[in-house]
Fold Peptidoglycan-associated lipoprotein.
Amino acid sequence: MKAWTKPVTAACLLGLAACAQPPEPPQQIYDPYANTSAGALYQGDLAGGALGIEATAQYFRNTVGDTVLFPSGQTTLTAEARNVLARQAEWLNKYTNFNAVVQGHAEETGTREYNLALGARRASAVQEYLVAKGVSAGRIRTLSFGKERPVETCSDEACYAKNRRAVTVVTDSGAAS
């Protein structure tokens, strides 16, 4: 190796080292909730609950429960029905911008007139329970379908039991709660 190659190689390495970019400092991330012992700060009331999902007719139908069943030929509320209606009343009292229509239904046995009257008495029983739990009577209407809108169409007791029901249908009136 020639004597001049070592200084030239060293000079080239120093030149390359001088052209190298310095490493970038790590990116600063600002977290406004970091180091606060209370966690996230409350920023105000969101309409309809934490994310608004509870204030929907779908939540009422799927989570609260919109249907109660009755024994054959009866309009008395069972313990299970009262539990569902208590949840309905709580929800309706919380979300006052919703109105309800209680639809009374009956099984296919019996005359049309008898089943219309039975459906009306079932809807009225649900309405009276909701009003007794604090829901304004002006927000609840009743409607009887009798045996005209069965949820199941067949001729056995299991189907009859599903059709002996009252369904609470809620709609948003548009007024803020």
Summary: Residues 26 and 34 are 18 Å apart (CA to CA). The longest strand covers residues 98-105. Residues 73-172 form a domain with the 60s Ribosomal Protein L30; Chain: A; fold (CATH 3.30.1330.60).
